[in-house]
Amino acid sequence: MLTDSHCHLDAALFDPDREAVLARARRAGVLRQVVPATEAAAWPRLGEVCAHDAGLFAAYGLHPLFLQAHRPQHLNELRDWIERERPVAIGECGLDFHVQGLDVEDQQGYFRGQLRLAREFDLPLIVHARKAVEAVIMAVRKVGGLRGVVHSYAGSEQQARQLWDSGFMIGLGGPVTYARAQRLRRLVASMPLEHLLLETDAPDQPDADHRGQRNEPARLPLVCRTIAALRGQDPEHIAAATSANATRLFGLPA
């Protein structure tokens, strides 16, 4: 059994064939998927998608790349959604210092608000940290008492250790399958397995065998096999351990 800890199955790119995408995932052994949100307007649609399959688990949050769509009142609305819908996590939230034109102060304000909600409701966080890992670590430490995952991790080994010490796992997907991702591959080869989650970030970040194509959760086994080869371990061991990590972090049914 594999768990895709980060998959945007509610994305419009899946509208024509979502059921077929899910069927391929199940045949590939990907039996559970965590589906994080991007903006308040998309929360109802995400909930509807997850309600149609027992293996889909919703998370609600405000993604930094959708900053222009966010409003301060959305944090209050997020509290209402959490109380009513009981998601497995808050997210996708975080910081993005790569894309030009995204106000850093506004990003940090929404991120801090979601960190406080996570502590209030004792929920894990799904964090986006592109060229912002250090800032994320500082924000997490300032609030304290948090846990979660930094998805599509691209920081250093030292930063990864700081995240582990702060109660966070790292999520790895398609990028680790690229031979040029040497730093990432060195990290996953030696890191403690209890801090690792597997993900696809579908429809984004396809693996090296499907570059340029729409990604989907059925391709998670390739990520698993790549990591297993880098670590010199059986794919079944990696699948079992990372699924157990997801179960523990998100409180998923076994």
Number of domains: 1
CATH topological fold name? TIM Barrel
**Main β-sheet, in a few words?**
8 strands, parallel
Helicity, in percent? 40-55%
Rg computed from alpha carbons, rounded to a whole number of angstroms: 17 Å
> Given the C-alpha coordinates, what overall shape results?
globular
Cα(first) to Cα(last) distance is 10 Å
Proportion of beta-strand residues: 15-25%
Structural class call reads alpha/beta
Order of helices and strands: EHEHEHEHEHEHEHEHH
CATH class: Alpha Beta
CATH architecture descriptor text: Alpha-Beta Barrel
Biggest sheet, spatial arrangement of strands: 1-2-3-4-5-6-7-8
Give the number of helices: 9
Low-confidence stretches: none
Q: Kindly report the average pLDDT value.
A: 97
